[in-house]
Amino acid sequence: MSVPVIAIDGPAGSGKSTVARGVAQTLGWSFLDTGAMYRAVACEALFKGLEIHDEVAVATLADQSEITTLPRVTINGRDVEDEIRTPAINEAVSVVAAQPLVRRAMVSRQRAWAASQSEGTVVEGRDITTVVFPDATLKVFLTASIEERARRRGDESASSVARRDEADSNRTNSPLRQAADALFVDTTGRAVDEVVKEIVACLTTHR
């Protein structure tokens, strides 16, 4: 890789986005929320009336759409920052994200994005340490109790979070799992700043 990458994986509500943003801000690096990218594709598929189980159609949409995640999530110029957190998208994204052709298109985009950055980058998701950046400078796996994760999500019940855990962990293509060489961090009851400092400190031993 041409730039250093911190790859952060973990289940829904483990604190990936918040912690990754904090690490990126501390280091002055760029940040990419890959989960928001998949949610944006799911959102656009429903908006266009596509059948979300039509893998070829959704993958074509993923490949051809213009997606941004900062400062707000947009797809093809449409601001979907608020829409991607609705129950309908919570349901649809598990279907969309499990499709091999969709993941292939998105992984290619994510790698190209990282390569285009002038400094280091922090990327978070569910297959970042195992599939997208298996040679990342530092790999991190975040987790927390399911009660804590449901509380953080706000828009999801514990049963919904558990359902997504099962779908993400048991899908055939790019399942959620901890990389053998990833730093394991349980964020239950911990302040964001504390977790950020731990990850930044670990970076120095991996460079």
What share of residues are in beta strands?
Answer: 5-15%
By CATH, the topology is Rossmann fold
Largest sheet: 5 strands, parallel
Task: Name the CATH superfamily assignment.
Answer: P-loop containing nucleotide triphosphate hydrolases
Helix and strand content put the structural class at alpha/beta
Helix content: 40-55%
Q: Low-confidence stretches at least 5 residues in length (pLDDT < 50)?
A: none
Radius of gyration: 16 Å
Strand order of the largest sheet: 2-6-1-7-8
Roughly how many Å apart are the termini? Answer: 13 Å
CATH-scheme architecture? 3-Layer(aba) Sandwich
Number of distinct beta strands: 8
Q: Which word captures the global form?
A: globular
Query: What string gives the helices and strands in order?
Result: EHEHHEEEHHEHEHHEH
Mean pLDDT: 92
Task: Output the number of helix runs.
Answer: 9
What is this structure's SSE topology?
Blueprint: E1 5-9, H1 16-27, E2 30-33, H2 34-47, H3 55-64, E3 67-68, E4 74-75, E5 78-79, H4 87-97, H5 100-115, E6 121-125, H6 128-132, E7 138-143, H7 146-153, H8 158-170, E8 183-186, H9 192-203
Parallel strand pairs: 1-6, 1-7, 2-6, 7-8
Antiparallel strand pairs: 3-4, 4-5
Helix pairs in contact: 1-9, 2-4, 3-5, 4-8, 7-8
List keywords for this structure.
globular; Rossmann fold; five-stranded parallel β-sheet; 207 residues
